[in-house]
Specification:
single chain, 136 residues, Helicase, Ruva Protein, domain 3, three-stranded mixed beta sheet, 3 strands
Amino acid sequence: MAALLRQVTDEDLIKFGMIPEFVGRLPVVAPLMPLSEDELARILVEPKNALVRQYQKYFEFEGSRLEFSEEGLREIARAALEKNTGARGLRAVLEKIMLDALFYLPARPKGETYVVGPDVVRGEMPLLDQRKRKSA
């Protein structure tokens, strides 16, 4: 399917039913390919404003640390893949994990480190029960 999409031309779009005047206004035809699990995991950590960094900053505001295990990141990517929502689905998965944690975090002791692992992503254990150690 992906190989076929790469070969789409302006004529194909017109045969599909698009108005030629509209197709003529499209400077480039660029099909969107589905992202892999690896690519979704990279999106979580690599951009300057990555979601992982945003949530880590929220935890820093409350005097705590937030870490993500490699398997936790992969599990988040898998969950987004299952929903078939692409990179935008990553935020929805993370928000589901973080909702209660961010609500209760201000009342928790300061200096704790919390780890997002696969069990947290699957909902088997609340994030705030995943304390690792006191951070310095």
